[in-house]
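Lab channel / #folding
Pinned by the channel admin:
"Please post every new chain as: sequence first, then the structure tokens as a reply. Keep commentary short and put observations after the output so the thread stays searchable."

First post following the new format, from NK:
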Amino acid sequence: MAFAYIVRCNFTEPGREQAWNAWYSGPKIAQMLAQPYFRTCQRFHRASGIGRNYLALWTVDSPQALKTPQYVSQWGFAEWAPFITDWSRDLFDASAEPDGAFAVAPQGALDVVSFDGMSAEDASMARATFAHAEPAMMWLPVIGLDRHTPVIGVRALPDLASPSVAGADHGGQRAIYRPISEFHRAPPR
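Reply from TO:
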């Protein structure tokens, strides 16, 4: 069974943004993937659409990953915390998807549909509209943490030119993200 741990945020200090991205895409990913239950990670920056500017998509073996002493002692953005806004941490059921389903090639993109602030019932109706138009979208129900969106849709795209952000008028927030890190796997344990 797999779970998708999705962290979304904005960064408010342009003069330090490059250094923050180097830290998050390097030492922070390595630190987290060395912890129990963490399997994969890839980071993204919004290229178009509506949503937070940054998204990190982790896969974990268990919700327990976010409760271990290792995770709890190293949680957060360290020295970068004062520059992080609109931060959300949501845990989704991704049991039907293999880890590789979330990998995006360097020239690819991640199409994301969220329903932040909507009730589960309203999000379900809006999701149905998106799902009809986008049958390849993976729909992941929220199961824990901040629960900013009742469900999130994600799909890997072969390139930035292929997506459109049509459909944002159905009540969801749709964004296209380009990868800013490789798809990282945890070292063998």
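NK: The beta strands are 3-11, 38-49, 54-60, 84-93, 109-114, 138-145, 151-157, 173-179, 184-185.
TO: also worth noting, The chain has a mean pLDDT of 92.
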